[in-house]
Amino acid sequence: MDLSLSTETMGDRTIVRVGGEIDVYTAPKLREQLVELVNDGSFHLVVDMEGVDFLDSTGLGVLVGGLKRVRAHEGSLRLVCNQERILKIFRITGLTKVFPIHTSVEEAVAATD
Amino acid sequence: MATVELRFSALPEHVRTARLVAAAVARRAGVDEAVLDEVRLAVGEACTRAVGLHQIGGISAPVKVLLIEEEKQFSIEVGDEAPHAVSGERAPGAGPGDADGEADEDEMGLAVISGLVDDVEVSAGEHGGLIKMTWPTTPPPTILV
């Protein structure tokens, strides 16, 4: 399964819905999408990972890169994920302390720093 | 004895194939279903790292994956042919705080493998590196459900 990406705007937040597999082959597409959004002035991103079947360290690297980009503009990058096997990768790498992880898009959109 | 040997050109699109083959062979060898996700992720990380090392080093040789079924255990060896400066050094778990460039993704890959797999050996020499990961297997059930 390949990677699917779609975006939606909710107020000042941009939702990025990701589906499929994020690995060394597909991660560049996600990176391009995040870079494009930031370049277009979207600095508050919510990445919805509920449709993600697989995530590896390459994908984590892209998300960390996205976080750095939005922070440069005093923005935010929040994740939506309830899948234990995906959350486990964030825990192993200590990234649960770096990313705010929410259980729903609504919760992430309502959250403030 | 190697049950299955896989060689693939060092291209990102082949890493998924390696994951699928490794998970299929691991399942057949009797690795617990609950652990197959970890096998898939770990072998993907190891192959991603090998692909990266070959691409950076301009190495045309394929990445080699051995899927070894033994009594009560299943091992995966992922070998690269990139020369490593320090022999036998085990990479430390990388902290995510300094993730600042391509090199750190390699460290993060090793950190994920170390976090996932209890039995892992990382070795490297001037002729290439090898990551060996081993999981216990359970005998196949006598009654098929």
UniProtKB/TrEMBL annotation, chain A:
Listed InterPro entries: Anti-sigma_ant, STAS_dom, STAS_dom_sf
Keywords: Phosphoprotein
Keyword Phosphoprotein among record annotations: yes
Alphabetical list of Pfam families matching this protein: STAS
Residue span(s) of domain STAS: 3-112
GO MF annotation terms: anti-sigma factor antagonist activity
Biological function: Positive regulator of sigma-B activity. Non-phosphorylated RsbV binds to RsbW, preventing its association with sigma-B. When phosphorylated, releases RsbW, which is then free to complex with and inactivate sigma-B.
Family, as annotated: Belongs to the anti-sigma-factor antagonist family.
Protein known as: Anti-sigma factor antagonist
Organism of origin: Streptomyces toyocaensis
Taxonomic lineage: Bacteria, Bacillati, Actinomycetota, Actinomycetes, Kitasatosporales
